[in-house]
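Quick one, T. Sequence first:
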Amino acid sequence: MTLYIGLMSGTSLDGVDGVLAAFSGNEISTRGAAYVAFPPALRAALMALQAPGDNEIEREAAVAAALAQHYADCVAALLADAGVAPGDVQAVAVHGQTIRHRPELGFTRQVNHPALLAELCGIDVIADFRSRDVAAGGQGAPLVPAFHQALFGKAGQTRVVANIGGIANISVLGGDGAVTGFDTGPGNVLMDAWIARHQGKEYDADGAWAASGTVLPELLDELLREPYLALPPPKSTGRDLFHPDWLDARLAVYRTAAPADVQCTLTRFTALSLAQAIEAHGAGADAVYVCGGGAYNGVLMNELATALGKQVLVASTQALGVAPNRVEALAFAWLGYRFTQRLAGNLPAVTGALGERVLGALYPR
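Structure tokens:
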């Protein structure tokens, strides 16, 4: 049995999720979990780096150092809660924070300072998981479908795992072992941006604000006309496309719309774009299991279930024994394990890479 720590901070920019995972043969178990929220100043600095601006190199370096400290705090919390010493952990696998994702231009960039994290933790650090796949002609994302298959796949049953973070992605796990997956479009990113603008909140808790509004059919149709949604996989996206300016451009003729109605429409949009992707590429699925922050939004979950119809079970990954907010961090712990075993972490059928590749770079303690 070997222990790994996985750290994930996603498109929502809210904080870092960490898990302490144990690997023994094909068995994966979680020994502990922790969450460290980002303070408003760090969140604002990360948000500013999502778009071109002045003095980016220095600002990115400062943010990377701050992130490393928050990652280290998460590692310390995991070790303390589990009563585990740093020397007992094989490696910390850390995704970093994506600030640009342009695989069509041959790059993806995650803010990170793995050397500093290794110094702070006294544990080997594995980072930079996406760039090797991009170098091999892939999208560099999503990387989680291979892990979803390892953890949630079931022979003879087709399942879909839908991760609803800032961006939504799906993994279609065929009962015959075949796996496909891609980013479907926005998850929480537009809903979060809209409620932040109008209510100063980071997210719409349980979809309560959306539930107070009414869907605007014309706006919904306009949102669903986004060309990305119709592209065939492999494909991936992020804040480079789905950002407040994208939304404002489509709201130009709805300036008098009630903000709650827009929130309601954005929630329906996320659910429908996800459901349409599942119906197009996961037809025949017996169940859809949802992870990520969206799994805690009851209104969004109901919208997704309604869009898919009664013949498809929609539940969170808790039904499979893994809390929705732990899945992605656990996936990166798994990718760290694969790296140390010199095993491929990508699926070319998912990312479009030329072949399987060992993903990551090592920063020894």
